[in-house]
Specification:
Layout (H helix, E strand, L loop, with lengths): L9 H12 L4 H8 L3 H14 L20 H14 L3 H8 L3 H10 L20
Helix pairs in contact: 1-2, 1-3, 2-3, 5-6
Length: about 130
């Protein structure tokens, strides 16, 4: 699904392609549809290379995150939090990580509040 501010939906892109295929200039069709010429050319180029599937919305999610903290390091951070009840400022120097990174890891795993941990077991509990 297109985002809220997108000028063209999948239907609009198909309409763009049909109008250009009928022999009309890309610049004129782009002006009619309220998009820039480079954007119109982008959709035409995608349609030519991929066909109808090139007009479908694509994910804008990054394909990779090369600097993401390793899963083993994240597990170690979580273990230290649950076993020793340490905060980001104490866990960071132990593992050689910035406190901000440790804090983000704890947030991601729902371990950011000591009050949410069962004192004896260290398991996550949320009362409300």
């Amino acid at each position: 699904m297109s985002h809220r501010n997108a000028r063209l939906t999948v239907h609009g892109r198909r309409l763009l392609v049909e109008r250009v295929r009928s022999g009309r200039p890309v610049a004129h069709v782009a002006a009619e549809m309220g998009i820039s010429r480079p954007t119109a050319h982008k959709w035409i180029r995608r349609w030519r290379s991929e066909g109808e599937s090139g007009l479908i919305d694509r994910s804008s999610r990054p394909r990779s995150t090369p600097h993401r903290t390793a899963a083993s390091t994240e597990a170690h951070v979580c273990r230290l939090r649950q076993d020793r009840k340490l905060g980001p400022a104490r866990i960071g120097p132990i593992l050689g990580l910035p406190a901000s990174t440790v804090h983000r890891i704890l947030n991601r795993h729902g371990l950011n509040r000591l009050a949410h941990l069962d004192r004896p077991t260290g398991q996550v509990i949320r009362r409300y």
